[in-house]
Amino acid sequence: MRTVDPLHVRLLRLLRDEGAVSRAELGDRLQMPRPRLLAELDRLVALGYVAEAGLAASRGGRRSTLVELNPNLRFAAVDLGASSMDVEVVNGRLEPVAHYAEPADIRNGPKVTLQRVNELLHKARVDGAYERLDAVGIGVPGPVSFRDGVPVSPPIMPGWDRFPVRELLSREHGCPAVVDNDVNIMAIGERHGGVAHSVDDFLFVKIGTGIGCGIYLTGEVYRGTDGCAGDIGHIQVDSHGPMCSCGNVGCLEALFSGAALAKDATAAARSGASPALAERMAQRGAVSALDVAEGAVEGDVTCIQLIRDGGRRVGGVLAGLVSFTNPSMIVIGGGLAQLGHILLAEIRSVVYRRSLPLATGNLPVVLSELVVAPASPERPCSPAMSPSGRPPDAAATDRPTIVSEEETVALSEETAESAEAGVEAPLVEAPPDTVAGEVVLRLTDVVKTFPGVRALDGVQLEVRAGEVHCLLGQNGAGKSTLIKVLSGVHQPDSGQVEWRGEPAAFANPQAAMKAGIATIYQELDLVEDLSVAENAFLGHEHRRFGFVRRGRMARQTRQILSRLGHGEIPPGRMVRSLPAAGKQIVSMARALSHEARLIIMDEPSAVLAHDEVGNLFRIIRELTAQGIAVIYISHRLEEIREIGDRVTVLKDGRTTAANLPARDTPTRDLVSRMTGRTIEYVFPDRPADEGPGAELLQVEGLTRTGEFADVSLNVRAGEIVGIAGLVGSGRSELLETIYGARLAEAGSVRMDGRVLRPGVGAAVRAGMGMAPEERKSQALLLGEPIYRNVTLATFGRYARLGFTDAAKERAEADRIAESLELRPRDVDRPVRTLSGGNQQKVVVGRWLLGGTKLLLLDEPTRGVDVGARAELYQVIRSLAAQGVGVLLVSSEVPEVLGLADRVLVMREGRVVREAAAGELDENTVLDLVMAGSLMEGAPA
Fold this sequence. Notes:
Layout: H1 6-18, E1 21-22, H2 23-30, H3 34-47, E2 50-57, E3 63-69, E4 74-80, E5 84-91, E6 96-103, H4 110-126, E7 135-140, E8 144-145, E9 150-151, H5 165-173, E10 177-181, H6 182-193, E11 202-207, E12 211-217, E13 220-222, H7 252-255, H8 258-271, H9 275-284, H10 289-297, H11 301-325, E14 329-333, H12 341-354, E15 365-367, H13 405-421, E16 439-450, E17 453-464, E18 468-473, H14 479-486, E19 494-499, E20 502-503, H15 509-515, E21 517-520, H16 532-536, E22 543-544, E23 547-548, H17 550-563, H18 580-593, E24 598-602, H19 610-625, E25 629-633, H20 637-643, E26 646-651, E27 654-661, H21 667-675, E28 695-704, E29 708-716, E30 720-724, H22 731-738, E31 746-751, E32 754-755, H23 760-765, E33 768-771, H24 775-778, H25 786-790, E34 799-800, E35 803-804, H26 806-819, H27 836-845, E36 854-858, H28 866-881, E37 885-889, H29 893-899, E38 902-907, E39 910-916, H30 922-936
Parallel strand pairs: 4-7, 7-10, 11-14, 14-15, 18-25, 18-26, 21-24, 24-25, 30-37, 30-38, 33-36, 36-37
Antiparallel strand pairs: 1-3, 2-3, 4-5, 5-6, 8-9, 11-12, 12-13, 16-17, 16-19, 19-20, 22-23, 26-27, 28-29, 28-31, 31-32, 34-35, 38-39
């Protein structure tokens, strides 16, 4: 039985492109109510197309059932080229089950060619790859009528015109068949598993024996009238050029393709213009596109010029197409894509120069990750297939590769041995000389001094293999400096650092990483405009002959992500598009790509939702089970209890306690050793109820699609209103919209009864101030001194006749620094030199200079130690006592309940409860914010 329902087709395509997707996500993407979605999924489960795959986080931190294509499905993919054919069988997860490749010539006609395709598919069945095929897809190098499944006037495929390819394949294998241009199919593959994953508008350019372009627009392949609108290889670019196979003169394909490049290389070798090519011809009797690539890497001027000329011609053709389609990305694939960045640079240059500026303002032009697919146990070679995955008799000009056959065979054998052993290879193997429990890191009397500050004053630390060693201390206690000493950013002034039993001095972070010490900072140091794989191997990319081996990097990244429990993250996805938890996983993948023996995690849970923290702890336990040591830094003492083994406490640069048992040491002892106090949360008393003050803020029906909807609230003078909710519930977005940093789609914001105009300037002029969650990127001038950051919002007070009174600025900032116990107190220091918690104090202190009527606080104590929290709580309550209204967002429910007078609970962008803080308790709030997740996680 086969599905024909258009809705089912949409759903199955989405699962094909995205892999495992949660029910909640499917409902959002298809704009479908949950009851109907569940009914349709049940039908597809009954048909055998869909399977459930456990639970995962979705919107607002909810737990949602994952669904995916049934892994037992079997699909066949056939690629017919000008000189070879590839036949592959994949399962419902689109993972290869069997693969066969052999020389072929489509000029032999459709009957002979398709007969051989059927023979290979039947061979796959005999080999046990499938019992029944659910669909067959075939790609041909020419225009195809997608409606009829027949080639249409293919210039290089004599005898194929109007041949009923789809009908014959469907009848032969008893399943639906799809016939399309090969470049369109490659574009679909790029959308599913390449760098264009989840990109709705992109161009995929194949440069090989021929040149074509698959065009993806609004999430679908654009096929035009004949099914091959992107057949750019036969665009005339030189009226005096050579004859093309299509019969025209000067086509792009005739000037730059595998055959054309080999022809030009042969001419350069014979004329003596290229010594490198002449030497290769003398050795082998012929030269190929691969020889041109190797010659370019060696610096041969002629080889470089051949590649550049071709890149400029391709770029010129693409420029017009870019101006017309306005894509989000251009992906260069095919055999000649492995000519690498010399080719890519020329294409980029011409596209950027000749296209409309609006179309190329932020247009990435990148190489495909799907160029090379080496043999593996999951993709066995047929007898007619060489270990490199190429037909033995195929011309090297068809599919040049930078990966040697010896390396590919070695990789296959290594993978095969792991598969035969029946066990999954560890993500990172513990070093053979590291015994569980052995001391891998020891610091003795380490001192580090900066001008005027002794940041570390005789620190002692001991970390053992396979343990989670927690490091506690107030902001300014020396934790950040200690991290930088261990990671090679700073050199200690005195004392000794021993790494794995030997004295160590790391000259720079690269040296520390090479030795096996990786650091994941609180402010993640990822390059957001690079892909996941590029970030994971940043600084130690796999290269050969100067070319980055992107395919190998992608495969290894995928393995690391799978072992981290996040195999759903595509290696080609841009880091910018990932949520906070995803970015943290990428940071871990980077650490593990270096085979780290010690991983330092600085406040790793600060930006994570409740369920994401649980997954983080699972990953940490798996790492320590492999003998990897973890230094875990957190201000949340409940996390220390759950994940830690031992604890070391710092105070004012000294070790005040070492190797305390994490689970058994009383909280009062830990807090006392850090601060001298004995409790973690110290909330100031609420004042006696003197009646409500005047209404300062009134929000009515505020809405931003996809973030929050129909939110109404008010804040009165002297009142602290708290907003509780999970990460992703719309809390931060709501505050930013009230402040004018985001534009509301509906509703209004009033201050003192007057409607605020859009924009931050209007909010500040009305007496509103904000301390955002992302202090470094949104609130601080990191290169400026502390006093300039403190006076930033009231700068006009210190200006007279065009000059500023710096002495007065410093005096006011120093007063604020003293009231907040800023460490160090020197207000002339650049704010970037402060710890995260002290930077937060600067942001809050900015609004303490007067003139603020309403203060918006987004996670005000994120990264702030338990001692400084009490001081901030007192400051906030003091502001309220002076008549300032406060609207507070926090992920810590005790903080909201203990500090606020009135609490709003948000879930999935809506306010679900409003009550006085005294009428709520922590369990009630958690039940409210988690209700969606509990409902979603229930059996269907």
